[in-house]
Design goal:
The protein is built from 16 helices and 24 strands. The protein has 522 residues and is an alpha/beta fold. The longest helix is centred in the first third of the chain and has 18 residues, at 39-56.
Length: 522
């Protein structure tokens, strides 16, 4: 097992990318696009996918089972196609008639099964009009969807275009630093990120983009505008802007820079710093650290507490969630991950200093808080650093690795589970809040005091939460029912947090409910 020590803040963010969703897999050398007649290229793609899945999936799966699942994917293009196995022979049928057959390779031979898959594809295209019409990408999608649909709901395939968008969300992209919306087919700027090319040339909210690189944008589509605005870092892009406020046209030129989409918004409400984190990408921990320092510098000793709003946050990069938790911890365990592949075994420890010096903290979660957001909530709760408020979280306790394929597509594959500091497996259970906001029969203040008064009962629930075995699905489902997992968008959770953070005694009593950690069954 590998032990990861979170580096001091001055060392910068760790560069190993895990999604908590996903962890970035080994990136192969990219090759020129593969033509529809380059069957060896198709073999290479199938082999890379089959090998990666068999080596890294959380449960052992023979390559033969993986490949047969892929062959069955042909029927999603032409339902008349069927792959069957008869003894040591694999047969391809069209309307029940055999059109090709090959000896089955060894069960653990990814190259042999890739050769067979490409040969079956070639013969299917020779006989099936629907297969002939299908693009190479459509075939790859059918094959890998056929493989992954039998594994779990979080393992999936993304073609080259979708994979590029995924990487842009995770790691950033070459762009100018704006957000826009289409109004009557016209791109209107809705926000300009500070310290970006767009900010440097003084683009403004409500500016209309009329031309990009001399091409007029008439009845524009969002994806087309995005493609024109993005490009290689340091490449030039020219825009013509119509500024409505002054009724004039402006021509600007700028060099694209590396843009990491903002995932953190901050505000101050009555002496409380509120951070809303929408997801976890490569810039999230850096943004959280910046906002925490800014709040402390601005408010000084008048800062009463911190609220981290993770409601609706679907997750993102695992390492970023670990870094966010570490910003409020000085020591102790944050997370462990366990899988079949040696590279999936990690142990993360806090290694910095609490940027707020122990200032009271609340974390808001709901039924859509998943993955990386659950890591933050569980770590801060189990270490007695924050009171969790809301509903039971989603319960996605698996980690995905990203396998990049030679066609520039990618397979996102489940390869490990993570364990919270107290040792329980979060998958299928989620994080339970101390203050459950689905129980609003009384006012917020009464709800908090009722929870605190029922401390022994609440501690018993948390003891069961942390010790009920992962295979006892009925008991875990009953536990989740004690605080129903639902989506929350209103002000209730923030109101509860404000009351709690303003009363040190109530806050400490709420912390004490989960402060004593019990070792969970693994």
């Amino acid at each position: 097992m590998t032990t990861w020590k979170v580096l001091p803040r001055s060392a910068g963010l760790l560069t190993v990318i895990l999604l908590a969703v996903a962890c970035a897999g080994t990136t192969p050398t990219l090759r020129p696009p593969i033509s529809s007649t380059d069957w060896s290229g198709h073999e290479e793609i199938f082999a890379a996918g089959y090998r990666g899945i068999s080596e890294k999936y959380i449960e052992p799966v023979p390559v033969s089972d993986i490949a047969v699942g892929g062959l069955e994917g042909f029927s999603s293009i032409d339902p008349a196609l069927q792959a069957t196995r008869a003894g040591a022979t694999i047969r391809l049928l069209l309307n029940g008639e055999q059109i090709h057959s090959m000896p089955a390779p060894a069960a653990d031979d990814p190259r042999g099964w890739a050769v067979l898959t490409a040969a079956f594809e070639k013969n299917a295209k020779a006989r099936s009009p629907l297969m002939r019409k299908a693009s190479d990408e459509k075939v790859y999608e059918a094959v890998f969807d056929g493989v992954l649909s039998d594994l779990d709901v979080f393992s999936r395939y993304a073609g080259a275009e979708e994979a590029r968008r995924n990487r842009a969300r995770r790691d950033g992209f070459g762009g100018i630093g704006i957000r826009f919306k289409l109004v009557g087919g016209k791109p209107i700027i809705t926000s300009v990120m500070p310290e970006t090319p767009a900010a440097n040339v003084a683009l403004q909210v409500n500016d209309e983009i009329t031309h990009i690189d001399g091409v007029a944008l008439l009845n524009a589509k969002t994806l087309d505008v995005v493609k024109k605005l993005r490009g290689p870092t340091n490449s030039e892009v020219r825009l013509r802007i119509y500024r409505r406020t002054s009724d004039r046209t402006i021509n600007v030129a700028m060099e694209r820079s590396h843009i990491v989409p903002s995932t953190v918004t901050a505000s101050l409400q009555g002496g409380i710093s509120l951070l809303k984190i929408s997801s976890f990408n490569q810039g999230t921990a850096r943004s959280v650290a910046k906002e925490l320092r800014k709040a402390k510098r601005t408010r000084g000793g008048k800062l009463k507490g911190l609220v981290i709003d993770l409601r609706g946050n679907p997750g993102g990069l695992l390492k970023q969630s670990v870094k966010v938790a570490d910003l409020l911890l000085t020591h102790g365990h944050i997370l462990s991950t366990r899988g079949r592949h040696p590279d999936s075994l990690h142990h993360y420890e806090a290694g910095g200093r609490d940027l707020l010096g122990g200032l009271p903290t609340a974390v808001l979660i709901d039924g859509k808080s998943a993955s990386a957001s659950e890591i933050v909530a569980a770590a801060l709760q189990d270490r007695g650093r924050a009171v969790i408020i809301g509903t039971s979280s989603f319960g996605k306790g698996t980690v995905q690795t990203v396998i990049r394929l030679p066609n520039d597509g990618e397979v996102t594959l489940t390869w490990s589970r993570f364990l919270t500091p107290s040792g329980y497996v979060l998958h299928g259970l989620g994080v339970r809040p101390v203050i459950c906001s689905t129980d609003q029969a009384s006012g917020y203040d009464q709800l908090i005091r009722k929870t605190v008064r029922q401390g022994p009962k609440s501690r018993a629930i948390f003891a069961s939460w942390r010790t009920t075995g992962v295979d006892d699905k009925a008991a875990r489902q009953t536990l989740r029912g004690s605080c129903a997992s639902v989506r929350r968008k209103g002000k209730a959770e923030m109101e509860i947090a404000s009351i709690l953070l303003a009363d040190q005694d109530l806050y400490q009593q709420a912390i004490d409910i989960t402060a004593t950690l019990s070792q969970a069954q693994k």
